[in-house]
Structure formats: structure tokens, C-alpha cells
Amino acid sequence: MNRCPESDKILLFCERELSDVEQAQFELHLKTCIECRHELEQTVADDELLRAGIDEAFARHRVNHRIMEQIRNEKIARPAADVYKGWRYFWLTAFALLTIVAVISLYTPAPQKYHGHANAVMIQALNEESVIKGEKLAVDQLCDLATCEPASLNGCFLFTVAGNQTSVFKMSGRATARISNGLPEFSDAEATFELVSGSIITILVNGSQLKLERKTMIPAPFDTSDLEPDQVNLPTIDKPLVASTTDKTDAIIDGVAEEPCLVDAPAGNASTTEPAAATVSGSETWVDPTLTPGKNPFADEPLELDGN
Amino acid sequence: MNRQERTDVELVQAVLAGELEQFADLVERYEKLVFSFLLTRLNDLQEVEDIVQETFVKAFRHLATFDCERRFAAWLLTIARNLLIDSRRKAGRSIASTDLVNEVMLTDSAREAASQPAEVVVRRERFRTIVVMIQELPEELRTPFLMRVINELPYQEIAEVLDVPLQTVKNRIFKAREILREKRENL
């Protein structure tokens, strides 16, 4: 069947998709083309029939009253708008907070570890003047704080705290030490504390927490310089220690022996110090006179340099 | 404010605020759209009624979850489509049926045929033929075509409801009309 070449415009005409000029031209064409006019009428009629038929069916089968009746009678819980919105805001807020925390954690260095619980605290005196519970503690002698707490301390002590990790700190001054909730606690403290080695540790000093880090000290209310182990008083150290068989040197040695010294001075050291050698004079000498003059009595036997 | 002038979003917010009867306006606006959407997909008009009712009741129950940025009509059709799929799955049948409304229409017309003039009978037969042709259209062409012809929605609104570009809607409706014209010529 041959179609009118203009029939393709019928659907566009129905949908009002033609331009004003095209619309006017096609209307003129419809007046002369029976075929296109018939098809247009058929299309429009079909649309109207379809619309009317469904409208008729719809009018017979409307359920609007049933819907509203069900909504009213079944007592459907009214949509909890606030609850839904509240949850929506809750999750949005939670997500935002988690994102912020995640971002911050990315740019924050890992937290330093602290002792959560001290399994054992060992005390070691650093000098002979250190006193625990009124008794002097020998240097290098260890004392378990658990066996003597509360321990009144006066002097310079080294604390070794064993927990998840080990920390060693020094206390100089006066305090009463005990273990409190797994942390070393110092009450009535007039002392300085310094972390010597190991991980950072938190201790309790006069009721407040103190984090001990490397090279950090709290100021002491009094001068504790005389308690510092590195600054012990050595009253005779300025005097030359000599070894001699002369009366003069004997008198010096006797004098040394009579005066207290806080540090043991090995006798061997005295015999090898330069000042001692410098005091040797005259014919009286501590060198064996029977030895061949000019020969170093302490020298090794001559090496046999025979190439082997 | 005149109730008819209230937008869908305003009506939804009113219902959520406790004005239950405002939901009747939403039913009034879109019942025909949902009905026609289902009409060419189901055999049984009683089933169409049930799903239309269920669609609106379900919409009411979940009204608080409605995204006001969307078209209410699009949301309703989504609910209706899901209920239709559930219904077909339970019945063990496919969504596309071969003989839908016309059976009911024929029953209706047959009931009245005796008292109607011949012209009316012919008209009803013509209607049945049209419905059958529309049922044979692909889903993607049928829905915009029915929204255009039956609900007389503008292209732009159809595009928004179906969430497709405007030109796509025009093309689909034009294609549907072409197919219907060819079928009509071949009768």
C-alpha cells in the first residue's frame, strides 16, 4: 500500500511536535489528502477511545475510599518522621565523626606507651648515704619495694619498674614510696625524679600524676646537689696519692687513711699515678735497687724479631 | 491555601505532621496513574484494585522515608512495580500477560451488550483491540505512552517520573505510536 509521503507527520502533528510553519502546512495538506485526514482521525479516535475506556474502568474500580478506610481503621502507626530523620541524622553524624577521627589519626603520631601496671619495683641505692626505713642500704644492693612498702627513702636511688615494659628512673631526695594501683607512688616527697632508661612511665608524686620522660626533671624545693651521685664529696681527692717508703709519704698515706672518703680509691691506682712518680726523690726509691740500672723492671722481655 | 494548589511535597509533609486526611489528595492525584500502569499488566481487575490499594497503603506506611527530592509519582510507580513483581512471583506467572483487560472488558460489554445499540458494541470491540495492541508493546514504550495518552502528562513530567531524558521519552512515545499504526494497518 502506497502511503502519502506526508503521513509521517501525522504522529508529530498529534504530539504537537511540528513547528508552527510545519503545523500550518500540514493542516493545509489535511484539507486535500483524504488518506492522511482519515489516519489522523483514526489515531485521535483511538486515543480518545482508549482514554475513555480506561476512565470507565477506573471509575468502576476506584479504591480511594478503601485506601483511606484502611489507613484509618487499621490504625496504621503514623509514620514516625522524627524517628526516621533522627536516625538519619544520627548515622550521618556518626559517619562524619568517624571520618574526622580517622583523618586525625592519620596525621597524629602513635601515642607513647605508658606503664599500665607495675609488676615489680626494685630499689637500688646509688650511694652509701642512701637510707631506707632508717637503715643504710649498701650500694648496688637491691630491695623489692613490695616487701618494704611503705618505704621511707632518703638519698639517691634507682628504681627499676617492670611491667609491660621496663623503666628505670632515679630519685634524689626524701619520699615515702609504695605501690598504688600498679604505679609507684611517692608521698611527702621532696625529691627530684629523672627517667634514666626504658619507656616513659607515670608515677604518683604527692597525689598527682607525673609523667617521666627523658631529660625532664621536676624542680626540687631544696638543694639536693649534695645528694647527686655524681657530685659526691671527695675531701682528699685533691691530695696526691703516693706510694713511698719515706716517712713523709707514709705520713701522707696515714693521713689519707684517717680521713673519710666516700669513694674507694684502689691502691693500685695510687702506685701508677703521675703525682706519685713525681714525688720520688733521692736515693730512696720504691724501685728495686738490685735491678740493673737503666732497665725498665716492668718491661717485657725483648722480642725476638727474627721474622717468625 | 487551596488544597488543590498544594504540591506533593507539601501534602506529604502535612500527612507526616498528622493531617491524615491530606493523604486522600495524594490518592486523588495518582490513583489513576497507578491504575492505568497496572491495568495493561494484569488479567484480573480485582487484582489491579488490590495492588493499587496496597501501593498507597505501603506508601503511607513508609511516607517518612520518601525523598522529597524525587517525584512522588515515580516513587508510587516503583512501589507498584515491586508489588506487581511480588504478585506475579507468587502466582508463578510472568508480568507480561497475553490477555489482560480485554477479558474483563469483554465480560463487561457482554453483560451490557443486550441493552446497547450495535454502535456501542463495535466501540467496545475496538477498545479491546486497542488494549491488546498496547499490551503487546514493549514495557519501555508502553509506560510512557500510557502516561501520555491516559494521564495526559507533559513530556517533561514523564521524563522526571521515569527518570529518563526528555528526548528519550519523546522517542519512545513516537515509536509506540508507529508500532500501533502499523498494527492498525495490518488488522
Key features of this structure:
heterodimer, A: 308 residues, alpha+beta, 9 strands, disordered C terminus, B: 187 residues, mainly alpha, 9 helices, globular
**CA distance, first residue to last residue of chain B:** 52 Å
Question: Spans of chain A with pLDDT under 50 lasting ≥5 residues?
Answer: 222-228, 239-244, 256-308
Share of helix of chain A, binned: 25-40%
What portion of residues of chain A belong to β-strands? 15-25%
**Count of individual beta strands of chain A:** 9
Multimerization state? heterodimer
Order of helices and strands of chain B: HHHHHHHHH
How would you classify the helix and strand content of chain B by structural class?
Answer: mainly alpha
The SSE string of chain A, one letter per element, is HHHHHEEEEHEEEEEHHH
Output the radius of gyration of chain B.
18 Å
Shape of chain A: rod-shaped
User: pLDDT under 50 segments of chain B (min length 5)?
Assistant: 94-104
Total strand count of chain B, please? Answer: 0
Please identify the structural class of chain A as seen in this structure. alpha+beta
What is the percent of helical residues of chain B?
over 70%
Computed CA radius of gyration of chain A, to the nearest angstrom: 52 Å
Give the largest interface. A-B, 40 and 51 residues
Most strands sheet of chain B: none
Largest sheet of chain A: 9 strands, mixed
Q: Enumerate how many helices of chain A there are, as a single number.
A: 9
Describe this structure in words.
The complex is a heterodimer of chains A (308) and B (187). With 308 residues, chain A is α+β, with helices and mostly antiparallel strands. Chain A has helices at 9-14, 20-32, 34-60, 64-73, 81-106, 145-148, 247-258, 267-272, 274-279; strands at 120-125, 131-132, 135-136, 142-144, 151-162, 166-180, 183-198, 201-205, 208-212. In chain A, a hairpin with a 3-residue loop joins strand 5 (151-162) and strand 6. In chain A, helix 2 (20-32) packs across helix 3. By secondary structure, chain B is an all-alpha fold. Chain B is 71% helix and 0% strand. Chain B has 9 helices and no strands. In chain B, helix 2 (23-39) crosses helix 4. The radius of gyration of chain B is 18 Å and the shape is globular. Residues 94-104 of chain B have low confidence and may be disordered. At the A-B interface, helix 1, helix 3, helix 4 and helix 5 of A face helix 2, helix 3, helix 5, helix 6 and helix 9 of B.
